[in-house]
Every structure is written in C-alpha cells, then in structure tokens.
Sequence to fold (636 residues):
Amino acid sequence: MALCLHALPATSQTEDAPIQLLLQEHAEVLKKSSRKTIGPAIDALANSGLEDAQVVLERWQNKDMWVSKKNGLFVFAEKKDNKTLSLFDVAGSKTIGEGAKKDFKQLKPNSGIRGLIGAALVQFQLNSPDAAVRATALTAIERDAEASHLLALRGSIDDEPDPALKARKQRLERLLTIRFAEDDIERIAAINSFDGDLGVDVRAALNPLVATEVDAAPTLPEGAMPIELPRQEAYALLVSKGLAQAQISNAAIRETLVANINGTTVAGIQVASLDTDTARLAAYNALAAQGAAAPTISEADITTTLAAYQFYQTFTNAPIAVALAAQNVLEGIETSVALNQTADLALDAISLASIYFLAAIGLAITFGVMGVINMAHGEFIMMGAYTGYVVQLVVPDYTLSIIVAIPAAFMVTFAAGVAMERLVIRWLYHRPLETLLATFGVSIALQQLAKNIFGTQARPLTAPGWLDGSWVINDVVSISYIRIAIFVLALLFLGLFLFVMNRTRLGLEVRAVTQNPRMASSMGINPDRINMLTFGFGSGIAGIAGVAIGLYAKVTSEMGTDYIVQSFMTVVVGGVGNIWGTLLGATLVGTLQKGIEWLNPSNTLAAQTYMILFIIFFIQFRPRGIIALKGRAAEA
Fold:
C-alpha cells in the first residue's frame, strides 16, 4: 500500500495546458533531439507567447526536461537518488510528485541544440524586468550575433525603460541590420547612420561588406568595376583561372633540354653552346617545332590573350549598392580615425611632457639658476618615490597617503638637498667638472643606500581608486586618470614656482643672486644662504616629482636614472635658468619622443637615440636653448 501511495503524484499534471499541448505537437523532434530538425520546435516555443515558454527553454537547455515513457507527457525532473526523480509540471513548474527514473527518458540537447535554445532565449532576456539580465543579453548578442536576434531586438526597443540600455539596443539593432537585414534600403540607411562613428564595432560590421575579388571575363559583368592590372599580374590571373596557358619557366626548359639530349646535341644544337638563357630558349623552341616539347608563350601571345579579356573587381559579401555605401562611410571614418589618432598622440605627448617637466623643474633650479651639474638629481626623485611608499605603509588610505606623501617627500628631499649643498656642493662652485664627479659619486651612494634599506625588488606606490582607469573620449582617444593628475600637478608646480620666484622675498633674492651675485651681496643678501635654500627647494620639487612618477612607474633604486638624461635635455633645450624654457623644452622633448615612437613603435630605444641625435643637432643652432639664459651661468 505504501508503494502505491509513493507512485501517485502529489498533484495531478495538467495534461491540456497550452505549453504541454505545444510540446506534444513537436514531441517527435523533441525526443529525437537532432540539430537538423529541432529548429521548428524551438521557434514554436520562442514565438508562442506563453508564460511558461521561457522556463521550458531554460530547463530544456539545462537538461532538466524528461518525457514519460508511459503517457508521453513532458515534465521537469530532478534526481532524488539513483532510482527516483522529483517531478514538476511544465505548466507552472508545480510539484507533481515522484517517479521511477526508468519510466522517464531525459532530453539531452547537444551543444548545437543548446546554442539554438540560447539564441531563442535572448528575446525573453531582452524583455526581462531585471535590467542586469537585459544588459547581459545585449552583451551576449554583441559577442556572437545571429540573424534571429534582429527581430527580437527590434521588438524590445520601444518598451525599454532604461535610457542607457535603450541606446545600446538601438545601436545594436542598426549593427545587426547592416549584417542580417534582407532589405538593401534598410541596410544602407543603417550604414549611413554610422557616418563619422569611430566605434570599433562599426568598422567590424562594415569591413566585411567591402571585401572584393578580382576576376576576368570576355565581357564586363553587370555591376562589376573595371580595373587596370600590371601585365604580369593580369596574365597570372588568367593562368590561375585556367583561361591561359602558363609560361614555361627556365627550370622547365632546362629539364626538357636534359631529357632530349642526343649524344652531344639537343635538337641539332651543341650542348656546349647552351650556356645562356637565350641559347637554351632557342634550343627549346627547336624541340617545340619538332613536336618534342610544348610551345612557349611569346610576348605577342600574351598581348593577344590579355586583349581578349576584361579585368574587373566585384564585392563578394554584399550587393554593390550596400558595399558602396559601406565604402563611402568607411572612408569618412578612416579620416576621422586619422584625426583622432593625431589627437591621441598629442595627448600622449602632453602627458609625457608633463612628466618630464615635473622631473626637470627641480633641475632647472639647481642647474639653471645655480649652475650646478647635479648628477644626483634622479636620486632625489627616487627618494621622493620611496617616501611615498613608506607613507603608504603607515597610512593605509591611498588618497590620504598621497596627500601626506607630497609634503613629506618635499621635506625629506629638501633636507637631503640642503645637507648635500652644505657638505659637498658649496666647496665646488665654479668648478663644474669636480661638481659633476662629486654628485655622480653621491648618486651611486644614494642608490646603494636605497638597495640596502628597501632591497632590489620594485616597491608599490599605489594610486587612489579614483585614479584607476582612463578618460575615454572615444574608441581612439583616451588618457589615463593618473596622467591627467600628473598634468594637473605639473601646472600647480609651475604656478607655485612662478609665485615663489615673483611674489616672495626668497624669489626676489634668488633672482638677484642669479643676475649679479656681487651686487646682491653688497645689498645685504647672503648668497651662501640663498644657494643653500635654492638647492634645497629644487631638490624638494624633485622629491614631489618622485611621488607623482611613482604612481605609474616602478619604484626602485635605479628609477632616477630613467629620468636624469631627459631632465638635462629638457633644461638644456628649453634654456638654462628659465622656467618657461623648461616648459617649452619638456614639450619639445615629449612631443619628439612620442612622434619617433609612433613612427617606430617596436623600438623605443631607437626612439630615444634619434631624439638625442636631434637635440645634438638642435643645440648646434641654438646653443643657449629656446629661451636664452641671462645671469651667472651665461657669464661662465
């Protein structure tokens, strides 16, 4: 009795439910599960308008649909154990009890059928009340669009409540219209709507439409575009199409002559005389006249054959009207792409120039104002970057740590600069060679000190989360937020430098000492003190530059060497001792480097080499830089 109760359903199955009747109508193909015949059944479910159709397709795709061997009814089932199934009605998915596994057959759609089901489910997903589901469906269509998606997409646009998703649907609908619509007028209208659009997806949709094939025929076919081909290329095309006889190669002539040697002659000609291509060709023609070889093709024969054919080009993937519309739009897009690539290159150049300006602004003070060749300038950049790293170890909040790191880096490198000026530099003024050697030794010592403290591995200086990513203007032009932040920082320090030099007592005294140190001393200014503060100020700005550069570059003990050469070039090209010259020099060096890298993108080292050669050539004509120096260094 208990076994009988176990076999009875908890709730009777709705045998006459619309979804069950639809499944029964296609029962044979559903049971067979053949990729070739299943299409009508899937389309019937997708287009039925029944509430249960989506669930049936999803459960079928997941291999959860079974059919009873006794009455042929379809059910959803889940395995309870090895011999028992939990059964659910396909109408409403309500529980209908349990059944023996042996009494049911599982529908197991293969990967091809599951792909068809997935395509059919798209129309349900596009109209889902969940915006995330709709967005996922659009992404799936964008990755692998099919002709069946077009109608479903069009039907979902008008009722789309989300403006952003609606715009995506409208754009995707136009792209699918280009690919799959049968009406050429619709396709041309969709193509023209993308005129000037820089999206990669647009070019991916249009490029296949303009694929061409070169062919030849006695008369020009309708819609074909006549073209001119080089003589040899045109004849080779005819040979490849089987419309002309191939020319005899020199190797084939040799083989034929060897095969027809008779004693010491070939076709009555002495073998010893066949030492040129002309002689061998004459011997071959003699064999051809005797019928022992195939005749050669003369230039006159080629001319006659070419004159008998028209050479033309045809579009292979679209009607000519559609292809011409796509070609016209692509030409406009290519022009826009070229202009935007120029703008993107300009942004990269400005970004690199701002980095070089930040790295060189401190050197512009120490070298430009004081005339000190500081080979340890790069190590002050390195010290600033390591200061930022240490601050982030103490302050875990990345935004707050950067705010703290900037003044901390300035103070650390300012103090280091003052110490270096007091201990080393002040004894070597007006002795540039000794200054260069001494500061080079200091740079090596600072690098080794950094290795001893922090090790040789790169240390992370992490940017705040709001600096992640890039500002994407379009599919061609973009710039990272870190580069934008560095550009803004460069402008801020340009303003700070101008304020200090033009609006403060220190700036006034620095300018006085720069222009005439003896007169400044006689006016009560202590040149020794000004030199100390100036060197410290320049070193401090280098430390801040280190924090900025460390946000995107590796922080190691050798990072300063990556910027010392560019910093000196920036200062020298711009004009020693002039902040505006440094700004112009950074712009020139950054633009030049990016331009050379664009011309030779596979070799950045070569780009730097060419840049140095250009600057050497430049200073032959402008030895004082873009803006000439005035003051102590100029006199030296």
